[in-house]
Amino acid sequence: MSVVDEARVQDAASLLASLVSIPSMNPAFMADGSGGESGLADFVEAQLQGLGMETQQHEVLPGRRNVFGRLRVPNSKGLLLFECHMDTVGIDTWGPEALEPRVEGTTLHGRGSCDAKGCLAGMILAIRELAKQPAELEYDIGLLGVVDEEYRFRGIVGFIEQGIDVTAAVIGEPTKLELVTATKGAVRFTLQTKGRPAHSSQPDKGNNAIYQMVDVIHHLRETLDPRYAARSHPLVGYPTWAVGIIHGGHAANVIPDTCEAVVDRRIIPGETSEGSIREFEEAMAQLAASKPDMHPSVSSRDLADWPLDTAEDEAIVQAAMRALRANDLPPEPQGVTYGTDASKLQVKSGVPCIVYGPGDIGYAHTDHERIDLTEVVQSADVYAQIAREFGA
Question: Of 196, 233, 355, 372, which has the fewest Cβ atoms less than 10 A away?
Answer without folding.
Answer: 196
